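From the methods appendix. Each design record in this collection lists the tokenized structure first, followed by the designed amino acid sequence. Records were kept in a plain field format so they could be parsed without special tools. The example shown here is representative of the layout used throughout.

RECORD:
FOLD TOKENS (363 positions):
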């Protein structure tokens, strides 16, 4: 049944614009028909949405027995019921302003539920990956090369920090490129889901191998028994690059350039965590949020590297640092195993969002 407004009469659905249930944080649109039930044309001078609702009318002059489409779009940021309105200013002398209610209920989508866990997952992944034994040993080796090079403490700090800055910039550039490629897959839903499923399976395998490495290292505390590690040839190449780079006087510039080459080689190890984290970030809405999460991950990742170089600036005893690293292989491997499993669940299409929503309801 339509309610009518006289002289001229503009018929509006009694419920107004009823959205029903929409996803919180996502833009929704709804249209209704406004019919001129009078023998005279209705002239609309303005259509005004309020409280975040945007409205447009398909025609500002509605002929007799004709109708115009009122389109309303809005984004409800928080879950819960909402009540807004749209104002139509027309040439009705009795009712020049028509208030049309806009109602509905915003519910948290599964994607939004999963998104709540992205920030802690990204932060923890960066910290855990920063202590990844297969790359942490390389950090200590590089710090040792810089420490025993006969340079003063100031030069060692400068060289180490420039290396950290170069590592951060290189990983950011790599991450931005890979993330854009993953975002492009969003348009190819089937391909995207297959890639994510394969990635999740690989993460579960890496989780198993990481736990197995912890058990093997506990039985035989020698790093050669570990499966997830950089090939020895790559380690030798990294040390060679570092020694040649830091042999000259331009320690800061050399450290930055050295970081670029070393990071590309070390990605064989750190990429095991970095790639799935990028897959997780690529599903986040908004370029600014994705960039902030990427920067957060890389800042967390280089934090242990900064600590190693600061420590190396105070001592030339690389053996003590290596000994500390060896004592923490088992905890680091267990942490990586847990993180691989969590990332595997989160990137698996459907499952991660469902579990995130389930946990969200429980807490």
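DESIGN:
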């Amino acid at each position: 049944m339509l309610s009518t407004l006289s002289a001229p009469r503009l018929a509006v659905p009694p419920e107004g614009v009823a959205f029903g249930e929409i996803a919180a944080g996502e833009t929704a649109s709804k249209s209704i028909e406004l019919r001129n039930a009078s023998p005279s044309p209705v002239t609309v001078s303005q259509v005004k949405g309020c409280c975040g609702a945007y409205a447009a009318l398909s025609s500002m002059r509605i002929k007799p027995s004709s109708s115009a489409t009122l389109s309303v779009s809005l984004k409800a940021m928080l879950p819960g019921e909402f009540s807004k309105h749209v104002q139509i200013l027309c040439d009705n002398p009795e009712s020049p302003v028509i208030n049309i209610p806009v109602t509905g209920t915003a519910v948290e989508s599964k994607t939004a539920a999963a998104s709540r866990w992205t920030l802690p997952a990204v932060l923890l992944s960066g910290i855990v990956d920063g202590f990844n034994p297969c790359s942490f040993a390389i950090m200590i080796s590089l710090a040792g090369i810089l420490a025993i090079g006969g340079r003063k403490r100031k030069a060692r700090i400068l060289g180490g920090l420039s290396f950290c800055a170069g590592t951060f910039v290189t990983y950011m550039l790599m991450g931005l490129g890979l993330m854009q490629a993953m975002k492009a897959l969003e348009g190819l839903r089937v391909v995207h889901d297959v890639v994510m499923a394969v990635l999740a399976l690989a993460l579960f395998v890496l989780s198993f191998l990481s736990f197995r490495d912890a058990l093997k290292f506990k039985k035989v505390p020698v790093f050669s028994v570990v499966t997830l590690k950089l090939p020895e040839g790559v380690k030798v190449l990294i040390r060679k690059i570092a020694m040649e780079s830091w042999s000259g006087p331009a320690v800061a510039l050399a450290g930055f350039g050295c970081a670029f080459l070393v990071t590309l080689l070390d990605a064989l190890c750190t990429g095991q965590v970095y790639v799935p984290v990028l897959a997780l970030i690529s599903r986040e809405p908004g370029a600014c949020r994705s960039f902030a999460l990427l920067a957060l991950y890389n800042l967390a990742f280089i934090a242990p590297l900064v600590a190693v170089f600061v420590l190396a600036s105070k001592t030339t005893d690389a053996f003590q640092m290596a000994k500390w690293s060896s004592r923490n292989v088992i905890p680091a491997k267990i942490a990586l195993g847990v993180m691989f499993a969590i990332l595997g669940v989160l990137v698996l299409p459907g499952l991660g969002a469902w579990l995130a929503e389930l946990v969200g309801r429980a807490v």
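APPENDIX NOTE: Confidence is low (pLDDT under 50) at residues 1-7.
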